[in-house]
Design brief:
This protein has 14 helices and no strands. With 363 residues, it is mainly alpha-helical. The two termini are 44 Å apart.
């Protein structure tokens, strides 16, 4: 069988070479193929079944549902454009730029609708699937030829985390900083749009972590770090994202329900504590430890930055322990320490990535 198929593989490789197919663009071909399939499927769903969205989220049926059908047609048209980029990924910059801008404006418009009372927070799954999960893949594609792309991805992750931290301070009345769970419940019920914005930002923060780790690992690999350890570290970090997203999903869609009572709110926040602060954070810190070990071993990250990283992941694991024990004051202290160190450390890593990329470009 191998003797029969080998000439076929060689012929395929030569055909790809003659066609001048850039093999390094294959991941982006897959990305835009998935985007095309999703957009076309959404377009068909919204265009042919305009009432399905409203029945799914238990919304009042609009007087003119054909408007939603038109939205589906526009989204489906984007699918055709994404299919073109999957075919010719080296020519898709403008399409991807418009797509990314649209996917940034989508959550902004949705937040405005939630604030105005036109849409309830429970419609968040639409924004997560349509917009948020595509941010960093599209950004990576647009920066693929930039020498400073890794630093840009790292600093984007830092900016999102820093913004989310400020939003957390602005919503402290609904967090463990408020020792009275009933008062927390009442605060969230009275500030549902602000609470929704907070967890939308933390959702974006969660999605930024795999992109940050992949950019970091690319630099470590060039320094000679072991691929199996890098893959393991990234895989552990990525494994934490679904748990984090599940917890944030509950905080947006369940904690803000007007029909919720205080006992149900406490149950929702308890579920988030396990999903986000315990499981997801624990996986992030274990994965971070693995990558930091390889960064130290390969000589890419030592000295003060290396020590800061180890201290940061250790405090993060302490946060996981306090979440399991449900000790709120300790959760606040370890969580604040973790975020303070992470923002500082990740910004320094971004700078080091910029320096590394500059050296690589010169050589």
């Amino acid at each position: 069988m191998l003797a029969v198929t080998t000439p076929a593989w060689i012929a395929l490789f030569l055909a790809l070479q003659r066609a001048e197919v850039k093999l390094y663009l294959t991941p982006y071909r897959i990305l835009f193929l998935l985007a095309a399939l999703y957009n076309v499927a959404f377009g068909i769903w919204a265009g042919l079944f305009p009432l399905a969205f409203f029945s799914t989220f238990d919304l009042e049926v609009p007087r003119y549902p054909s408007i939603w059908s038109c939205v589906g047609m526009v989204v489906g048209l984007y699918g055709i454009l994404y299919a073109y980029v999957a075919w010719k990924p080296e020519q898709g910059n403008w399409i991807a730029t418009v797509g990314l801008v649209g996917k940034i404006l989508g959550p902004c418009g949705w937040l405005m609708s939630v604030t105005a009372g036109e849409l309830p927070p429970r419609t968040f799954p639409l924004i997560l699937a349509n917009d948020l999960i595509w941010w960093f893949p599209l950004l990576a594609y647009l920066l693929r030829n930039a020498s400073w792309r890794r630093a840009a991805i790292a600093w984007t992750a830092v900016t999102i985390h820093l913004t989310a931290c400020f939003a957390l301070l602005a919503c402290s009345g609904g967090t463990e900083a408020n020792p009275d769970p009933v008062a927390r419940f009442e605060w969230v019920q009275g500030h549902a749009p602000r609470w929704t914005m907070l967890w939308l930002l933390w959702t974006a923060s969660s999605l930024s972590l795999p992109a940050f780790c992949i950019a970091w690992c690319a630099a470590l690999r060039e320094r000679g770090a072991k691929m199996n350890w890098l893959a393991a570290g990234c895989a552990i970090v990525i494994a934490g994202v679904p748990f984090d997203l599940s917890g944030e999903f509950l905080m947006i869609t369940r904690a803000t329900l007007p029909s919720l009572n205080s006992d149900e709110f406490i149950a929702v926040t308890s579920a988030y504590r396990w999903l986000g602060a315990a499981i997801a954070n624990g996986l992030y810190c274990v994965g971070g430890w693995v990558l930091s070990y390889e960064a130290w071993r390969s000589g890419w990250l030592r000295g003060g930055m290396g020590v800061m990283g180890m201290a940061m992941w250790t405090i993060g694991l302490a946060l996981t322990g306090t979440a399991v024990l449900d000790h709120h004051p300790a959760m606040i202290a370890t969580g604040a320490g973790l975020m303070l160190l992470f923002v500082s450390w990740a910004a320094c890593v971004g700078w080091k990535l910029l320096v590394s990329d500059a050296r690589r470009t010169r050589h």
